[in-house]
Amino acid sequence: MLALLMGLVSAFFDIRKFSPISAERLIQVTPVLLSLLGLGLIGAFGEELGWRGFLLPKMMSGGFKSPYFACGLVWASWHLPLIAFGDFYRTDNTLLMALIYGLGIIAISLFFSELRMRSDSVWVAVIAHASHNFFFQLMIPSLLLTAPGSHSELWETVASDTGLCVAVLYAVAYLASRRILRPSAPDYRGA
Q: How far does CA 60 lie from the centroid of its chain?
């Protein structure tokens, strides 16, 4: 749902144009998509086992004031060298992209942490993480929004998988989840 909203925002602001690939092409790439989804689950499992399976519960039991935020900060910091110096994003302003990436990762972490703690299962975070990567990094930009818009230079900073739009959408999803998912539960997250 969030990936679709990001796609709509991107199309509305003419960052990328809605131009889905043909049905024939989709059939051709389906085995690759399924393989990437499987590999994505493995990668997401590794990350989530570390971030929300191990680190987050340790932070919570260790008395961190804002464990969801702190976990996101560590997660973002872990990736920042790759973002700032690894040519992961195609942008002229890598430091700005690293800052935006950090904001996006922290917002994503708030939501994934809430899902993980509410479900008492790291698997919920694994599926959310793999779904995020699959839809935001692959499905939307490669299958639906395939044509650049008149503001395509804003893709990385505004509409990519950790752009400003994604940070806002995940922050809203996190706030909504706090109100919707068992609102009478004790506030243990300190986020």
A: 22
d(CA 173, CA 87): 29
Residue 136 corresponds to which tokens in the numbers above?
């935001």
How far apart CA 26 and CA 12 sit, in angstroms, is 24
Distances (CA, A) of 120 to 53, 56, 134: 10, 12, 24
User: In this structure, how many other beta carbons lie within 10 angstroms of the beta carbon of residue 89?
Assistant: 21
C-alpha 100/C-alpha 19 separation (Å) is 27
Task: Kindly tell me the sign of the dihedral angle through the C-alpha atoms of 80, 4, 10, 42.
Answer: positive
CB 190 within 8 A of CB 68: yes
CA–CA distance, 87 with 94 (Å, rounded to integer): 8
**Beta partners for residue 131, in sequence order:** none
Residue partners of 56: CB distance under 8 A and separation at least 6: 67, 68, 71, 113, 116, 117
C-beta separation of 54 from 177 below 8 A? no
Q: Could you tell me the mean pLDDT of each successive run of 10 residues in the chain, 191 residues long? A: 88 91 91 93 96 96 93 93 77 84 96 95 96 91 89 90 93 90 53 53
Q: To 10 degrees, what angle do helices 122-132 and 23-48 make?
A: 140
